[in-house]
RNA sequence: GCGAAAGUGGCGGAAUUGGUAGACGCACUGGAUUUAGGUUCCAGCGCCUUGCGGCGUGCGAGUUCGAGUCUCGCCUUUCGCACCA
């Protein structure tokens, strides 16, 4: 055996073996449990970054671990190939986006291959290829026919100098990134997907995803934002029309002192006619971009419309204001304002001198009054409590807390006085319903998904505009609508608009003159269904075929936490769309893993959810900041692989932090990983130098060898759990390192010792192989010539090796560690207590004081309380 | 502004169900090997203290025989906010 670890050589040999034996080709095998392991596909930006290396290593570790456990594993790879950066690069380098993208894909594919990933490359796909996006267009036309796609206007960022629509990312401090011009909101017609129709299912099904992180499910729940409230109609003074608002706090209705509408609200626009100051203000509100984070943090501005509505209960006149903090896209674009109990309304009312009327008081006050009535509380105490609470009023969080938590009671609210939240809500909703001025309503924060993009490098929206027939979907036989690839990008809008030879066409319905839609789809659309297409990657007759029913759902999905909401919600939505279009046929035909087999799994039946288990990976940082070109703190994976090999890169990434946490880059840590692999290689080489030997199969062992076998089989158990259930690869590696350290201390050349050493080394190589597959492939071949590691299977712990006669217990006195004792493994509480009390160290610390209590935690510790 | 997380030695992290805080690795220090550097190997390594011992998981309270872990309140950092992907 070669005495030195030569990564370049052994990694090339290992990859050659895997390729030639077609080791990772995934074949549908009914009856065999399948494991579909998917990492989020990369955007082909040019070259891999460390985040990719981390993501794909995590996926590969899980794929290889499950393969060794006997699963039929599918791990595919592809390219999220449409997107804005290609257009920017095209302008910079004067190369068409398509050419730039394909070039990047070729380079990055080579990089991925050098990582030694267990991928079935036959299933590779790129979303910019017509045979992929054809089916996206097909689904779009089906959804258009079902009414799940519709058209409406919506605001976008408009750069008035470049005369172009800007992405939020291209708006810096309210200005266009290239022109520097102040950005404006502009309404344009767009196609929308009716994701709100699935809001309730998307919310409910989260409960059937035990394999998803709670954090992600919570974020999605909040994003969907189901709230039960009341729609309230404020009649216009002297008109039959009403102004609709939605509120989750109908109990505060009697505290309303004004109503605020968005600048784009019809009432605002109406009022602006003949009111130049208001018109100017509305114009002012159009300035700036559409990003919500900016809208929510901007200074609160407003202006009275001069119009009034009537309070639906009291009939009192309530002024209507235009406010920039009210968003047209939410609910009705109008809110009832209760300055006494809402921080934003309060701030606004103070700024513009609007009245503040209390309608709720703290639950504590009601309790105090009840206590006075029953003689348990003094009038003086109440007065003090009132003063304390009034001091908090409007100045501290105290006031907001009991508003926010809905635990106050109504005051100054006429007939509703004394009612709590639920009582007031029900009473007010009932009264409004009687008057025909409102009712209870369920409202979602989630908005429909605008998918039109005024860009070139994307999937063409398959719609033909005909003067007589309107918007006509492209018929199936005419799909795909192919995006021309040889174009020039000049930054003045989509080149498609300048290609009459492309957009001029005939109407599929009437045959008359018509034009193609030149907008393309949001790239989130492509990434919402690629996971399903991998199963049917080469199907030319349909979007999906029977194979999708074998592989889906994805058993393990891995990707960055930044996708927790948008991508993952859109993909869940698309899964349900595909299901409802009938693409999955009936029930699953694949033998879905049992819960025990999988650890965590989806309890949802059939094809309701795309991803049974989700692992959200943390970021790769250097010097405490995200690695990025702009910060200039990137480390090139290529250089790392060339210097140390892929195994060192993989080992460092898996060892430095658990996958869900952020990972701090460390050059010294990489050295450490490399050193460990050298030690591992040397350990096997030194062992084999003394001659080949079979692994221990039973027989008498010294205490030292027994202890080593105990540690070995404990390590097998721990590592199996760390990979399969906990996904903490860092602790799995640490456990194998400890095992190797223990083996290194063994100074015994007896045949029994050599057998145990062989057993330890074989197991260590198998346990590490999902993380460092190349070196383990080579070492296994040395330990067991003529066999392949991939055929060896996952090691199993030997129960006989795990039997122990004595166990160690820690003894505390008053919670402080004072010593340790050894007790027979089946000793009872009383026996353990006796051993602990007889311990010299313990006696010293008790020092004659009375023992009040002894707590015995079996297998762990004894705590003596004095 | 809203939503979600995170905070433990000089550093990355471990402590899985409330039960020995600091596993494993890095850095550092001392020693061995080496012409030297590097490599490799051995030992030490939270802070304070001569010692006994005390203190210690962002800060402040609380629950408990026992809190890094649970509760409440703060501080700081990170992610997302619908046209970056």
Q: Which regions have little confidence, pLDDT < 50, spanning 5+ residues?
A: 391-402, 587-605
Q: Give the assembly state of these chains.
A: single chain
Helix content: 25-40%
Q: How is the largest sheet built, in terms of strand order?
A: 2-1-26-27
Which strand-content bin applies to the residues? 15-25%
The largest sheet is:
4 strands, parallel
How would you sum up this structure, described in words?
- The protein is α+β, with helices and mostly antiparallel strands.
- Helix content is 39%, strand content 18%.
- Strands 2-1-26-27 form a four-stranded parallel β-sheet, with helices on one face.
- The chain is flat.
- About 4% of the residues have low confidence.
- It binds one RNA strand of 85 nucleotides through helix 7, helix 10, strand 19, strand 20 and helix 20.
Give a quick precis of the structure.
With 866 residues, the protein is α+β, with helices and mostly antiparallel strands. The longest helix has 24 residues.
Tell me the layout of helices and strands.
Layout: H1 7-20, E1 34-39, H2 50-68, E2 72-74, E3 78-79, H3 84-93, H4 97-114, E4 125-126, H5 130-146, E5 149-159, E6 164-166, E7 171-172, E8 175-176, E9 184-193, H6 199-204, H7 214-224, E10 226-235, E11 242-247, E12 258-261, H8 266-272, H9 276-285, H10 292-297, E13 302-310, E14 317-323, E15 334-337, H11 343-352, E16 360-361, H12 363-373, H13 379-392, H14 397-404, E17 409-410, H15 421-435, E18 438-444, E19 449-450, E20 452-453, E21 463-466, E22 470-473, H16 500-503, E23 504-506, E24 513-516, E25 520-521, H17 523-526, H18 530-533, H19 546-551, E26 556-560, H20 566-580, H21 595-598, E27 614-617, E28 620-622, E29 625-626, H22 637-644, H23 646-656, E30 663-664, H24 667-689, H25 703-726, H26 729-745, H27 751-768, H28 773-783, E31 806-813, E32 816-824, H29 829-838, H30 840-846, E33 853-857, E34 861-865
Parallel strand pairs: 1-2, 1-26, 3-4, 12-14, 26-27, 28-30, 31-34
Antiparallel strand pairs: 5-6, 5-9, 7-8, 9-19, 10-11, 10-18, 12-15, 13-14, 16-17, 20-25, 21-22, 21-24, 23-24, 28-29, 31-32, 33-34
The structure holds one RNA strand of 85 nucleotides.
């Amino acid at each position: 055996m070669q005495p030195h670890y030569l990564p370049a050589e052994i990694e090339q040999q290992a990859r050659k073996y895997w390729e030639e034996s077609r080791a990772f080709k995934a074949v549908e095998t009914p009856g065999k449990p399948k494991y579909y392991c998917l990492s989020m596909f990369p955007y082909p930006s040019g070259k891999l970054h460390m985040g990719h290396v981390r993501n794909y290593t995590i996926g590969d570790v899980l794929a290889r671990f499950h393969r060794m456990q006997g699963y039929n594993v599918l791990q595919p790879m592809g390219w999220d190939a449409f997107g804005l950066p290609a257009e920017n690069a095209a302008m910079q380098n004067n190369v068409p986006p398509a050419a730039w993208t394909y070039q990047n894909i070729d380079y990055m594919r080579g990089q991925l291959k050098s990582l030694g990933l267990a991928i079935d490359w036959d299933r590779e796909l790129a979303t910019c290829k017509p045979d992929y996006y054809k089916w996206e267009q097909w689904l779009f036309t089906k959804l258009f026919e079902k009414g799940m796609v519709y058209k409406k206007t919506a605001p976008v960022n408009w750069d008035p100098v470049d005369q172009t629509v800007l992405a939020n990312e291209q708006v810096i401090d309210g200005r266009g990134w290239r022109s520097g011009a102040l950005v404006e909101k502009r309404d344009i017609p767009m196609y929308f997907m009716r994701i709100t129709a699935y809001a309730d299912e998307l919310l409910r099904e989260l409960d059937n995803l035990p394999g998803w992180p709670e954090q992600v499910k919570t974020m999605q729940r909040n994003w969907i934002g189901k709230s039960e409230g009341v729609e309230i109609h404020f009649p216009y003074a002297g008109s039959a029309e009403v102004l609709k608002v939605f509120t989750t706090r109908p109990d505060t209705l009697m505290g309303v002192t004004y109503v605020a509408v968005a600048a784009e609200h019809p009432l605002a626009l109406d009022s602006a006619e003949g009111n130049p100051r208001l018109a100017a203000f509305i114009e002012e509100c159009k300035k700036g971009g559409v990003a919500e984070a900016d809208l929510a943090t901007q200074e609160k501005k407003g202006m009275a419309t001069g119009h009034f509505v009537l309070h639906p209960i009291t009939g009192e006149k309530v002024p209507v204001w235009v406010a920039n903090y009210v968003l047209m896209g939410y609910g009705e674009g109008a809110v009832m304002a209760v300055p006494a109990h809402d921080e934003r309304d309060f701030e606004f009312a103070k700024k513009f001198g609007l009245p503040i009327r209390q309608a709720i008081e703290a639950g504590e006050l009601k309790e105090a009054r009840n206590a006075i009535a029953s003689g348990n509380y003094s009038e003086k105490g109440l007065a003090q409590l009132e003063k304390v609470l009034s001091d908090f009023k409007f100045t501290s969080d105290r006031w907001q807390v009991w508003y926010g938590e809905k635990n106050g009671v109504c005051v100054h609210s006429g007939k509703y006085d004394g009612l709590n939240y639920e009582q007031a809500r029900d009473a007010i909703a009932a009264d409004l319903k009687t008057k025909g001025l409102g009712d209870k309503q369920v409202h979602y924060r989630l908005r429909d998904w605008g998918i039109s993009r005024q860009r070139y490098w994307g999937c063409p929206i398959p719609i033909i505009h005909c003067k007589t027939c309107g918007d006509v979907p492209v018929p199936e036989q005419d799909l795909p609508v192919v995006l021309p690839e040889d174009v020039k990008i000049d930054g003045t809008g989509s080149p498609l608009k300048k290609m009459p030879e492309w957009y001029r066409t005939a109407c599929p319905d009437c045959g008359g003159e018509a034009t193609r839609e030149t907008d393309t789809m949001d790239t989130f659309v492509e990434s919402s269904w690629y996971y399903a297409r991998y199963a049917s990657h080469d199907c030319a007759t349909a979007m999906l075929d029977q194979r999708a029913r074998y592989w889906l759902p994805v058993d393990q999905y891995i990707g960055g936490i930044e996708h927790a909401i948008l991508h993952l919600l859109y993909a869940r939505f698309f899964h349900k769309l595909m299901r409802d279009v009938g693409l999955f046929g009936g029930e699953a035909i694949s033998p879905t893993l049992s819960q025990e087999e999988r650890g965590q799994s989806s309890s949802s039946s059939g094809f309701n959810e795309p991803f049974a288990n989700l692992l959200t990976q943390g970021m790769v940082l250097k010097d405490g900041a995200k690695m990025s070109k702009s910060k200039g703190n990137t480390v090139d994976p290529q250089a790392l692989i060339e210097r140390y090999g892929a195994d060192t890169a993989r080992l460092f990434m898996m060892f430095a932090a658990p996958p869900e946490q952020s990972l701090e880059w460390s050059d010294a840590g990489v050295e450490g990983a490399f050193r460990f692999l050298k030690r591992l290689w040397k350990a096997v080489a030194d062992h084999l130098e003394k001659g080949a030997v079979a692994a221990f199969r039973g027989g008498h062992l010294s205490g030292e060898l027994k202890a080593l076998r105990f540690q070995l089989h404990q390590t097998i158990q721990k590592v199996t759990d760390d990979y399969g259930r906990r996904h903490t690869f860092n602790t799995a590696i640490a456990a194998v390192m400890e095992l190797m350290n223990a083996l290194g201390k063994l100074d015994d050349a007896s045949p029994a010792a050599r057998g145990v050493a062989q057993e330890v080394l074989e197991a260590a190589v198998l346990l590490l192989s999902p993380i460092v597959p190349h070196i383990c492939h080579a070492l296994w071949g040395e330990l067991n010539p003529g066999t392949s590691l991939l055929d060896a299977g996952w090691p199993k712990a030997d129960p006989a090796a795990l039997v122990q006669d004595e166990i160690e217990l820690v003894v505390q006195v008053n919670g402080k560690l004072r010593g340790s004792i050894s007790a027979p493994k089946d000793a009872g509480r009383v026996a353990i207590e006796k051993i602990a009390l007889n311990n010299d160290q313990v006696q010293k610390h008790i020092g004659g004081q009375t023992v009040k209590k002894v707590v015995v935690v079996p297998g762990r510790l004894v705590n003596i309380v004095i």
